Amino acid sequence: MNPDARINLEQVSILLLDGAVGMSVLAQIFGGFGARKLYKCTTFDEAKAVLKDSEIDLVVLNDEVDGTPGHEVVRWLRRLDGNVNAFASVILVGGHVRRSQVQLTRDCGANFLMAKPLSPRMVLERVVWVSREKRPFVGTDTYAGPDRRFHIPSERENLGRRRGDGLSPVDAANPLLPLIGDAKT
Amino acid sequence: MSVVRFIPQVNRLAKAMAGPGGKKASEAIADAQAGLDTIAPPCVEAIDEALLRIEAATAAAGPLAEGRSEAIYRDANRIFGLGGLFGLDDMGKVAWSLCELIDLSAGTAPSARAAIDAHVRSLRLLRFGALPEVERAAVLAGLDRLLAHVRGEAAEA
Predict the structure, then answer these.
(1) Between residues 92 and 111 of chain A, which touch chain B (CB distance below 8 Å)?
(2) Percent of chain A predicted with pLDDT > 70
(3) For each of chain B's 157 residues, which pLDDT tens digit applies?
(4) Cβ of residue A169 closer than 8 Å to a chain B Cβ
(5) Cβ–Cβ of B19/A8 closer than 8 Å?
(6) Collapsed DSSP state (helix, strand, coil) of residue A13
(7) Is A36 in CB contact (< 8 Å) with chain B?
(8) CATH code (residue A113)
(9) At B107, phi and psi to the nearest 5?
């Protein structure tokens, strides 16, 4: 990231959802970035109330809050009929992810799964990445969220098309990279 | 056959970030780090409390009941998330390995319990042991081998 690039989160409505200690971490990071419209929720119920009443541009949530898996929260959000927040940008913050939860987490409809341990630089880079997303939303019986099929531009693109090229090597190896890009499991 | 709806969306985050003002990325990162530094003491305290709970949960010998292993997993995951953020990277690595052990074995691999105990003792050693770097690395390498061993056992089970 260009250190001189300007970042402006002053007008961004951000909902943070995490337990008390995690909340203090997220609040310090986003406060340091200059975010002013922070909704700090430590339970799913608090977050539900905010998401039903206020327009939110970015949701950042932990993968487990107050006994509720983060992927359930995202699924609930994406199915909010008639609410603009169903299309909000979502970054799901994950620690160790149990094997049984990997697919549920990957397919919940978040824009990005960001792996702990966090650092301010990593968080800022992911926020900028999500802000540049142009993927349409997809709704099916089993999935609602950003289109999971997408293309990561690579330097090789400028080299022209080669025989047999369908996806770039990055796509073919890991088409869901931004969803699992940071995941350690 | 399931119906797929494509819904083009304006990226509201991008729109909200497009206005005048803000700060340089380098300043944003430095300010965020300065904020984190102010909460380091209570966060390190939370790590130590999680370690104490893990030690209490593993004090009794024998297989871990599901409720107990779940509690250990949550506390280890907490240490993993916070450790690297507040200069306790080695603890974070051991905590991640402990999460992996519990998730892998669910107490069924023959060596799982001994491996869990070794991880818990290592967490305390790395937190308070004032070990030289080379010995810290040796502890981590040993735990890596232990995890690999339990992975092998779990795969065979």
Answers:
(1) 95-96, 98-99
(2) 81
(3) 678 888 888 899 999 999 889 999 999 999 999 999 999 999 999 999 999 999 999 998 877 877 788 999 999 999 999 999 999 999 999 999 999 999 987 656 778 889 999 999 999 999 999 899 999 999 999 999 999 999 988 888 7
(4) no
(5) yes
(6) strand
(7) no
(8) 3.40.50.2300
(9) 80, 5
| Residue A122 exposure: Cα atoms within 13 Å on the Cβ side | 15
Looking from the CA of B132 toward its CB, the CA atoms found within 13 Å total 2
Residue A6 lies in a domain: no
Nearest-Cα distance to chain B for A71, in Å, is: 17
pLDDT at B8: 84
| Domain span including residue A31 | 13-180
Closest residue of chain B to A88, computed from CA coordinates: B12
Using CA of residue B140, residue B142, residue B144, residue B147, what is the dihedral sign?
Answer: negative
Over the Cα atoms of chain B, what is R_g?
21
Residue B5 DSSP one-character state: E
Say yes or no: domain B24-156 is CATH 3.10.620: no
Does residue A185 sit within a domain?
Answer: no
Nearest CB partner across the interface for B26, out of A3, A57, A96: A3
- CA–CA dist B90, B101 (Å, integer): 17
Q: Which two tokens stand for residue B44?
A: 């390190």
Judged by a CB distance cut-off of 8 A, whether residue A29 touches chain B is: yes
Cβ-based neighbours of B64, under 8 Å, separated by 6 or more: B57, B58, B72, B102, B107, B113, B116
